[in-house]
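[step 3/7] inverse_fold.run input=structure_tokens len=324
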């Protein structure tokens, strides 16, 4: 197999991929920080007067802050109800005696009590809604981490094959596989870091559905084309899953995180689609940097981008890789 590689061109290709990946990782750190700030209770906001213990886990911070906020609002509602009832009683006494208005006072006290109860119920419901949204976000992030874990293990296995990581390997394909594997590892770390900050557990296992697909495919691999086809499936599943979950997470910060990583996976897929198209044409001889444009087939210019809008039909369910 021809192994024609221009070191400068290869460096530029890897650098472009790394720039996109680095942008995604910077977005991840900013997004998670902003998410935690946005979902903090009023008592945790700047100037709120409440300090969070640094040694408590994120879930404890959230629960304690939620309880404190509910207690404070409940107390305020009760104080306001008492003050209003007292004012009405005094006004009735001034109009000719408290007994003339005692029926009305009782009714109004009942109304005040009901209002206090409704306020408390509303707080509990709001807290439950926030908790439910956080749980859903954690599941989505755990599933994302599981997909990345599977990609890492698949590329690791592929690089042990002589035609991907050995002496028979095309230099461009090998370099791409090594860099892509490293990026997937960082994506998994990023998703798990977000999970932990939101109070969840790290997902260190592979996606169960596609782990079975990879397990079944590995024994049938005969050449680089088989590896590329399998990698395309995994990159596509990752990109489609993150693209769909952009609209499922609860904040714009997490939408930015998923969207930026989806772009990296889509780039991986585009490169693999181009490689897949060139492998059968020349047994890898056309996979060079820089490419010989005069020898490339017509499809080389468009095969990497088959869709105007990225599809989501292969997206994994949010709970597919979530821990239970």
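[step 3/7] decode complete -> sequence:
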């Amino acid at each position: 197999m021809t192994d024609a590689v221009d070191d400068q061109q290869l460096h530029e290709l890897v650098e472009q991929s790394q720039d996109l990946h680095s942008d995604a990782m910077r977005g991840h750190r900013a997004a998670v920080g902003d998410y935690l700030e946005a979902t903090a209770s009023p008592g945790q906001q700047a100037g709120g007067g409440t300090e969070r213990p640094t040694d408590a886990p994120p879930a404890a911070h959230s629960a304690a802050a939620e309880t404190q906020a509910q207690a404070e609002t409940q107390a305020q509602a009760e104080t306001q109800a008492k003050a209003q009832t007292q004012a009405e009683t005094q006004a009735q006494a001034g109009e000719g005696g408290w007994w003339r208005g005692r029926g009305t006072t009782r009714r109004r006290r009942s109304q005040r009590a009901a209002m206090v109860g409704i306020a408390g119920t509303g707080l509990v419901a709001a807290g439950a809604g926030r908790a439910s949204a956080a749980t859903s976000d954690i599941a989505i992030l755990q599933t994302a981490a599981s997909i990345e874990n599977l990609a890492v293990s698949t590329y690791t296995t592929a690089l042990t094959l002589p035609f991907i990581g050995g002496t028979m390997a095309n230099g461009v394909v090998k370099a791409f596989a090594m860099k892509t594997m490293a990026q997937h590892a960082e994506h998994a770390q990023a998703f798990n870091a977000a999970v932990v900050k939101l109070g969840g557990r790290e997902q260190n296992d592979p996606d169960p559905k596609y782990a079975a697909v990879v397990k079944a495919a590995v024994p049938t691999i005969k050449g680089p084309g088989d590896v590329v086809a399998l990698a395309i499936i995994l990159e596509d599943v990752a990109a489609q899953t993150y693209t769909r979950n952009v609209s499922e997470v609860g904040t714009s910060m997490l939408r930015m995180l998923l969207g930026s990583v989806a772009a990296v996976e889509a780039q991986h897929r585009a490169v693999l689609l181009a490689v897949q198209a060139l492998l059968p044409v020349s047994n890898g001889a056309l996979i060079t940097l820089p490419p010989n444009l005069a020898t490339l087939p017509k499809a080389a210019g468009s095969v990497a981008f088959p869709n105007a809008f990225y599809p989501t039909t292969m997206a994994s369910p949010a709970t597919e890789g979530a821990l239970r």
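[step 4/7] annotate
Residues 7-41+133-301 form a domain with the Ferritin fold (CATH 1.20.1260.10).
The first helix runs from residue 7 to 39.
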